[in-house]
Specification:
It is built from twelve helices and twelve strands. It is α+β, with helices and mostly antiparallel strands and about 325 residues long. The strands form two sheets. Strands 1, 2, 3, 4, 5, 6, 8 and 12 form an eight-stranded mixed beta sheet that branches. The longest helix is centred in the middle third of the chain and has 16 residues. It binds cytidine-5'-monophosphate.
């Protein structure tokens, strides 16, 4: 066995609401997370020496502890020292297709892929719940990235409640390559401006989560009503990111003007997605937005909602 090839999809947030501050410094969230087909490819294999070799041609991707994929390998080596001893060091090669620092969980998905890959390579027999517990140590979005699909995520984002699959809905995704938003900055700025509106106790959080569970978006997902899903999109972080980055607001407005049935920033941005009724409409929307905004820094992709998390194949 020479190694594994992992496909690690991007995610978008169909919903992101910040409920309050947590004692651990993070925020209590209610999100609806959704994987899309746009994916990175990660090869994981063993080498005879010790340590981690990380390769990626995309210059913005760090090749050390700053990369979640690297930290995922470190975590597995620390937790399973006998396997590390037996199989040796780890080579990780990342082919980056998901834009970096985009609010699309690209880095988190790469970390999830390394956990899944090493579980297979080292024949550890860890289950999805086992992997999600390890994943939560690496970042709030990493547990979702393991299984993907459509899910309500609460807590820091690591508590997952699966929803029915929404496969195949066409999406146009857009990101200005010259804009990067720091996720800690987005949350800190939100706190500074909106802390007064935070729900103060566990009971209020629970009540709000119950409301969302029985609310319009979840019903729309359960009935696969695309128009209703599009009408229920929400992201609290838009309140701080859009005023600070007017280009992102313009992009979002441009999607709406050219007929997207719903459009929203994903995560802490700056990527924006648009939901479309058909692939033809998505291709048309991509062309219209690209023509109108006419910027060499604007990247656009036509993709679709997908029900897959990390997928593995032997090399
Ligand atoms: O968990 P992750 O490393 O992805 O989080 C990145 C940053 O986003 C955290 O350092 C924190 O500033 C912010 N965050 C938060 N509350 C969450 C998730 C993330 O404040 N639930």
């Amino acid at each position: 066995m020479s190694g594994y090839l992992l496909t690690a999809p991007a995610k978008i947030n169909l919903y992101l609401e910040i409920l309050g501050d947590r004692p651990d410094g993070f925020h209590e969230l209610v999100m609806v997370m959704q994987t899309i087909a746009l994916s990175d490819r990660i090869e994981v294999s063993s080498h005879r020496g010790k340590g981690i070799n990380l390769y990626c041609k995309q210059p913005l991707v760090p090749l050390d502890e700053r990369n979640i994929a690297y930290r995922a390998a470190q975590l597995m080596m620390a937790r399973f020292p006998h396997a590390y001893e037996e199989f040796g060091g780890v080579d990780i090669t990342i082919e980056k297709n998901i834009p970096v620092a985009a609010g699309l969980a690209g880095g988190s998905g790469n970390g999830a892929a390394v956990l899944v890959g090493l579980n297979l390579l080292w024949q550890l027999g860890l289950t999805q719940p086992d992997l999600r517990i390890l994943a939560a140590e690496l970042g709030s979005d990493v547990p979702f990235c393991i299984g993907g699909g459509t899910a309500i995520a609460t807590g820091r984002g690591e508590i997952l409640d699966p929803l029915p699959d929404l496969d195949g809905i066409p999406i146009v995704l857009a990101k200005y390559s010259n804009i990067a938003v720091s996720t800690p900055w987005a949350y800190q700025t939100y706190r500074a401006q909106f802390e007064d509106g935070y729900l103060r106790d566990d009971e209020s959080w629970q009540d709000r989560m119950t409301q969302i569970h029985s609310g319009g978006l979840i019903q729309a997902i359960q009935t696969k009503n695309i128009q209703a899903i599009a009408a229920e999109l929400h992201n609290d972080l838009e309140k701080v990111v859009l005023p600070a980055f007017p280009q992102v607001q313009t992009l979002r407005d441009c999607f709406a003007k050219h007929g997207a049935i719903g459009t929203m920033m994903s995560g802490s941005g700056p990527s924006v997605f648009a939901i479309c009724e058909s692939v033809e409409q998505a291709n048309q929307l991509k062309t219209s937005v690209s023509t109108e905004l006419n910027s060499p820094d604007l990247d656009l992709w036509v993709t679709q909602i997908s029900c897959h998390g990390i997928q593995a194949a032997t090399l």
